[in-house]
Amino acid sequence: MTDEAPFPPLIYDGLEPVPEPRSNAATAIDALKQAVARANTAIEAGKRPGMPLSILSNVAREAPLGSLFMALLVGIAIGRRSR
Q1: Could you tell me if residue 3 is inside a domain?
Q2: How far apart are CA 57 and CA 20, in angstroms?
């Protein structure tokens, strides 16, 4: 018999190492990048022919003053509701 006790196994023996904690800024930057990527894909999908952004850009190109007038009216209507 020996007086030496066996060493306990290492806590992470055979497992992947613990990842280093990330800063809040890095987490926020990653979240912002993902949000921008989702917005870009949505905009690109809306610009395809026949989609709403395509139609809106065509109308604004053909009648810029009428489009400006409609945007003004919509802005006034939304502005008065929020008060």
Answers
A1: no
A2: 47
- The answer to whether residue 2 is domain-embedded is no
Number of domains observed in the structure of the chain: 1
Give 43-57 pLDDT, tens digit per residue: 999 999 999 889 988
Owning domain of residue 45: 25-81
Q: Which residues contact 53 (CB under 8 A, 6 or more apart)?
A: 43, 46, 47
Residue 55 structure tokens: 């139609």
Q: Compute the chain's Rg from CA coordinates.
A: 29
39 domain-assigned: yes
Reading the chain (83 residues) residue by residue, the pLDDT tens digits are 567 777 766 665 556 666 788 899 999 999 999 999 999 999 999 999 999 889 988 988 999 999 999 999 999 999 888 66
Say if 20 falls within a structural domain.
Answer: no
pTM over 0.70: no
